[in-house]
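Dear all,

This email documents one entry for the complex benchmark we are building for the journal club exercise. For each entry we list the sequence lines for every component of the assembly. Then comes the predicted three-dimensional structure of the complex as a token string, followed by one or two observations. Please use this as the template for your own entries, and keep the labels exactly as they appear.
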Amino acid sequence: DTEVTQTPKHLVMGMTNKKSLKCEQHMGHRAMYWYKQKAKKPPELMFVYSYEKLSINESVPSRFSPECPNSSLLNLHLHALQPEDSALYLCASSQQRTSGTNRETQYFGPGTRLLVL
Amino acid sequence: ELKVEQNPLFLSMQEGKNYTIYCNYSTTSDRLYWYRQDPGKSLESLFVLLSNGAVKQEGRLMASLDTKARLSTLHITAAVHDLSATYFCAVVHAGGTSYGKLTFGQGTILTVHP
């Protein structure tokens, strides 16, 4: 299984809603990532989890809250989002041979297309 | 701060022609990736280049890396319509608190027409 899966594929939410994005991989990867991608722009890193611990937070607003319940799952909890948060949210994972040497190829999921009204 | 610049940003090619996309980066790194993204889809890993002088080929695409010049190229040979997509290069941060982080170039939107 060489796949990263994400649910839902599409999400429409109001600014007062709370929702969650889910990501799953069964490749035994120990690093997982959340990216945000606006139209016609490159992906921008939001968070990195390494061995289920948050290792990089790219100064993301607190209305985005990541969670890594186990080595196969990654969630992104959303609360009180703004219309400018509308984007494609991509999850990725990579093999990480030891903690601190996180440089392997990242495999991306299909993404969740989020629209905030 | 690591900066990654691609050019051209837009490339309109005729089928059967050759062209090269360039990726320059600003600080030392020994690992560079090329990804492909179809409209509305996710990113597909094409190549990982690990050392100076590395060259990899898959079908009509060939990627190379010159770490001294901090330059990677993606060469397209005899383009076909199926190659139409956005191509990103991405460079790994080599140290500091961003160790392992990927920084992407702006992307090159490639359109191949008859």
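Observations: Residues 50 and 74 of chain A are 11 Å apart (CA to CA). The mean pLDDT of chain A is 91.
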